[in-house]
Amino acid sequence: MAINRLSRWIAFSYLLVFSLPSVASGDLEELVEDLEYELEELLDQIEDKNKRFKINGFLSAGAAYSDSSVPIESTDLRDEVNFAPEGVLGLQMEFKLNHNSKVVTQLVGRGKTDFDIGAEWGYFAYNITPALTFRAGRVRIPLFLLSDYLEVGYAYPWVRPAAEVYDLAELFSSQDGMDLLYNFSVGSVDSQVQVGAGTLARTSPQYGGLTFKATDMLTAAIMTNYKAWTLNANFAVVDFVADLTGTDLGDVNDILVANNAGEIKFNHLDILYYSLGAAYDNGTWIVQTEAINTSYENRPGPQIFPIQRAHYISIARRFNRVTPYLLYAKNRTVNAHERREADAILEQAGLSSLSPARVILGLLDHTQTSWALGLNYSLSPKAIVKFEWKLIGRTKGTVGEFEDFAAFTSILTGEDVLDGTNVYNLVFDIVF
Amino acid sequence: MTNKTHSLAIASLFAVATSFSFADIAVVVHPDNAVTTITDSDLSRIFLGKTDSFPDKSKATPIDQKEGSPLRDAFYIMVTKKDAAQLNSYWSRLIFTGKGTPPKMVRNDRKVKSLISKNTDHIGYIDTANVDDSVKVIFTIK
Known about the structure:
Mean pLDDT of chain B: 86
Strand order of the largest sheet of chain A: 1-2-3-4-5-6-7-9-10-11-12-13-14-15-16-17
Order of helices and strands of chain A: HHEEEEEHEEEEEHEEEEHHEEHE
Number of strands of chain A: 17
Structural class of chain A: alpha+beta
Number of strands of chain B: 6
Strand content of chain B: 15-25%
Helix content of chain A: 10-25%
Distance between the termini of chain A: 31 Å
Mean pLDDT of chain A: 82
Number of domains of chain B: 1
CATH superfamily of chain B: Periplasmic binding protein-like II
Number of domains of chain A: 2
CATH class of chain B: Alpha Beta
Largest sheet of chain A: 16 strands, antiparallel, barrel
Shape of chain A: globular
Oligomer: heterodimer
Largest interface: A-B, 44 and 32 residues
Largest sheet of chain B: 6 strands, mixed
Shape of chain B: globular
CATH architecture of the largest domain in chain A: Beta Barrel
CATH topology of chain B: D-Maltodextrin-Binding Protein, domain 2
Low-confidence stretches of chain B: 1-20
CATH architecture of chain B: 3-Layer(aba) Sandwich
């Protein structure tokens, strides 16, 4: 079809060139206009063909430095300049099957895992109606407000969303299953509801020495927009199955059972996630806040798992290309007393405070706050450079976002090495 | 042809941010479209993909101008209060989550008119100097 049009256009051009001397100037203008029209139609046909297949991508690259010798859990960052934690490369390919359906896949490689490329997404989407879309395959889990685009640095003003909140979502980034997206408007208020079900895409990740899988996940999210305002509420329940064999938590369980304190529930433990958020963006000011809660339905049995509450609030102001921002975040566990009950039983059983079983119980407690002051500069409509200074603090006796057995034992022995850690970042975020 | 003209006070606020000058922008639909006027808020919702309907609930399909065109930059600053970078940030949240697709882009005013004249649900924006009988103006940005 396009070839036919091309040959017509060439013939048309030929006629134009050889008939020029005999054409009046008014006719000539008309002829040129016709030619331009034909050419545009031809280009449209070629473009429409190409538009069936689309590639988009995002890239983050930069460097980070922490002045603490104790590594930070989510990034493994310590007191040396490190380029890997900031690196993310994502490629998204979309192929339109027809007017109502498409196949989308997103490949993501991360610096902290040597850019091993993995399929973060791969799903088939079908528009049942213009407002209702069904998706099946590997989809992102809308655990919190930013979970869907956590790694697309260009999409938010900070170097990265608050770790105090979003590290809680790290394990549950995508699921194999299906979801439904429904858009509706009431007056000028536009909303989207998303409900999904599936199993965790990564079946046996290692976390704190545990091998676990999430057999069933149910998620629900609603996001509402009105002018500059966005409100969101997210809920997820994860059916969690863990293998404790040979782990420190397995030892804790054995001692509790031997002392008639009951058995810790590790099979089909339900983890519940709730999130409420609000954002305001009028083009000049961006204010965003979110509060989340994670808890466990693990009764009966000893309550050793932490109930965590976290929140953040951020304010940013755009001055043309420059956007300074401030981000405050806090994460805390609220049921330390329940772990102390289990710890008392371990102590009665003769375990010292530095025994692995008692240390691992203590590691479950977190209290951390952070302040991040940053500035981003728009290099072009598709590239931003961000600078950030972050000060991390914790309540004494908890490990916060840090990890290291030695660090924890140093806290137990009164040597607190984690007070007031400074983290510096320089990151380039690009979309293409 | 019904032509309701709106003067946007925000124009002066963004004059500094835009380093180019542009003629008035006309928001246009098919002459048979029942819609005769629209607010900047509803325009913003349609072009940001928040709704796919005109205020009278009939289907609305936005047609965009090509990336980097001064007309496009001016339109989005006036209507959505977003410059090109903010617009890319907004769409990246939707594209990379599979929750939205930006409007179809075309090369110039003539193509906008050509598409709209063949589709009663389409809405686009062009330089007012290029308005003719093939389209109906429902909003003017000065």
